[in-house]
Amino acid sequence: MSNIDQLRNKIDSITLEMLALLKERTEIAKQIGELKKNSGLNVTDESREEQLRKEVSEFCKSAGLDESLGKKFLNFLLNESIRVQSEGKQTHLTVFLKAKSLEQQGKKIIHMEVGEPDFAPPKIVRDALGEAFDKGFVKYGPAAGMPQLRAALAQYASKEFGALVKPENILVSPGARFSIYLAISTLLNPGDEMIVIEPAWPAYRDCAINAGVKVRTIPTTLESKWEPTVSQIEKTINESTKMIVLNYPNNPTGKILPPKLQEEIIRIAEKNDLYVLSDEIYSAYSFSEWRSVLSYNYKKSIVTQSFSKSHAMTGFRIGYTIADPKIIEKMVKLQALCMTNVAEPVQYAALKALDVDITPNAKSMRSKIDTVIHEAKKMDLEFVAPDGAMYLFAKVNKQGFDGIEFSNMLLDHGVAVAPGDGFGNYKGFIRISACQDEKKLMDGMKILDEVLNKSK
Ligand code: PMP
Q: Total domain count for the chain?
């Protein structure tokens, strides 16, 4: 056998040995996951990860292995552990699917688990779909979006978000979810780290794991009004950190950061050359002072927006990204690869929807949220009154409940809410969505009160 063949044989057997070890490691991670579940522990344990990271870095130094390669490999392993330990996690989608199957069996369910406005899209949108057909907007188009829509969105964003936005700053995407996926997949590399402030919408983490990116969590608490501290953020940043995700008004808490704190976070991001991915899809539902991240003119900011919530157009699947043209270009390439472009009739409908006054939607959402807050106060739930968005995030473990157990029990009584566990380590919480008519909200909250106070 030649030298090269011998060496190749060795490489082959080392690769297979590594895979066997990976299998063994994954089995152990699953067992740890079960133990964590049984004792109510969170899947992610930052201090434990940090300890392992130190060991890996010391090993790399002593073995003469590139430390960054070691850390990349570790991040892959950590993500794999998180993935297997998160299987079967109960989120708002799990509850939604259970609720749907109960409905099929003839049970009446009040849906307070999903984030979908109950009001209809603007009427103009219906005509726009027919018009799009007549005008021939039924073909393939540019991947970044129809020029007319990009221009109109640039104008709209300049007016609404306090920055000069040009068409080349815009990417039209099938919903903010896809914008977020594109931003994380194209701007970050396997082994990079991304900061997420929890509680958070779970897709940020899922997109990162899908891209081999390691999520560093900053947990916030009800007691600290869901505000991260500057020192928490500074301590989490290291040489692998490449992005911080912001989402204000927040899903699930409805929090809007105090202006000074938000400004400080942007300053820290700038100092550390981080991307700021700011998901601002709830901005139309801001009930106190809100400022777009765009207004800081930071080159590495990526803002995601959508027609889903503001215009009640969830089913149309249309949103957009606002960022530096170089960032947009990278995202456009992946969008072109995945889906060519957003359907032209849908883009045309969005173009028309931009002219609609959406203040009635904001008024309606505010009134729904106020109803939920009013009822929640009466039943002694613990929460911070939301500054915006469409939800109330409340503590139920004061009454001795676990959020998952409580939402399952509530579902048996005909009300669906989202367990807090889907948004991070918030087992004692539930997210109540205000996306229902006021009568249903009142009925739902009454049932919630009855179930909650049974245990007293
Ligand atoms: N971001 C947040 C915070 C959300 O809550 C959601 C949907 N619930 C999305 C993005 C996705 O929005 P879209 O429908 O535009 O994809």
A: 3
Q: Does ligand 1 come within 6 angstroms of the Cβ of 174?
A: no
d(CA 128, CA 351): 9
Mutate to test the pocket of ligand 1, among 173, 177, 435 (most ligand atoms within 8 A of CB): 177
Residues 101 and 224 placed together within one structural domain of the fold:
no
The answer to whether 431 and 200 are in contact (CB under 8 A) is no
Distance 169 CA to ligand 1 centre (A): 20
- Residues 418/407, Cβ–Cβ less than 8 Å: yes
Least confident piece of the model among 88-92, 255-259, 359-363, 410-414: 88-92
Specify whether 331 is located in the same domain as 198: yes
Q: Which amino acid is at 377?
A: K
Q: Are residues 283 and 420 in the same domain?
A: no
- The model's pTM: 0.92
User: Is there a single domain that holds both residue 75 and residue 149?
Assistant: no
Closest-CA residue, ligand 1 atom 5, reads 251
Q: What is the CATH number of the domain that holds 159?
A: 3.40.640.10
Residues 72 and 187 in one domain: no
Contact 332, 180 (CB under 8 A): no
Q: Is 410 in the pocket of ligand 1 (CB under 6 A)?
A: no
Ligand 1, atom 11, lies closest to the CA of: 177
> Which mutation among 245, 251, 433 tests ligand 1's pocket best, with the greatest number of atoms within 8 A of CB?
251
For position 382, what pLDDT does the model report? Answer: 94
* Shared domain check, 311 and 216: yes
With a 6 Å cutoff on the Cβ, whether 390 touches ligand 1 is no
Q: Which domain holds residue 176?
A: 123-353
In sequence order, what are the beta bridge partners of 393? 431
22 Cα to the center of ligand 1, angstroms: 34
Question: How far is the C-alpha of 278 from the C-alpha of 250, rounded, in Å?
Answer: 11
Q: What is the pLDDT of residues 193-222, one digit of tens each?
A: 999 999 999 999 999 999 999 999 999 999
